[in-house]
What does this fold into?
Amino acid sequence: MRPYRRRRPGGSIRPHPSILLLLLGVLIPLLLREPAPPAPAPLPQGEVLESVRAALPEELEPLRRAFVESGAALAGRVGYFWGGKSDAVGWDARWGVPAVVTAPGSDTTGESIPFGLDCSGFVSWCAVNAAGDAAAGAVIGSGVRDQWARCTPVAWDEAQPGDLLVFPDLSHVGIAAGRGTDGKLMVLHCSRSLGGVVCSPDARAVGFAGAGRPAIFTNTRASSKRARSGKPLRANSLLNGIASHAPRCLLRPL
It folds into this structure.
């Protein structure tokens, strides 16, 4: 029988070689992995409308075109406001005017900041102004989850301008704005981290992962009624009206 050997005070325990190999196998790939490229910056405000229009197919349904162009008209002009909604047809006079954030769940709740839109409020306003009718807000839905629930999911490669794009956890929603010259899907969205309404040139790179077709487009009778009425959609007159108010509403840096 081997005599009992008392461990010396302060003696170290040697790890088993297999444990060292396991740790190295985990750490080495992490150290060698290249950092993820930063998300591309939004398009400059002055380039948004031109870039979006160039990305829209000529045969695009008029209601879709008006939906996308309405969103492009607000790029760089309306800031982010937690819980911000609007069913105004045209420019909302409240935008840019200080208001208290009353919706719970934000670190800005209770603060007074320039009024604007949140992501789903932006989508709703675009639907209202594409149709020229506040009732369109009830069709597109209110809130990201409600808007997504009213969509028919489509494959990313089949997303058309005017389809909705969402984050995987349904924390953010935007509007597909067509594909840029690089083939990547652009997105119009009202982003808190980016300060307001912007057009990002690569939707996937900023976190969007799902695409869905809103009921406002799948209901062909409703969407074609406006086109057959002979009344022009509001996009061009809307742009002129917003341009005249633009200096009143500045993005709030976050």
In short: The longest helix spans residues 17-32. The mean pLDDT is 84.
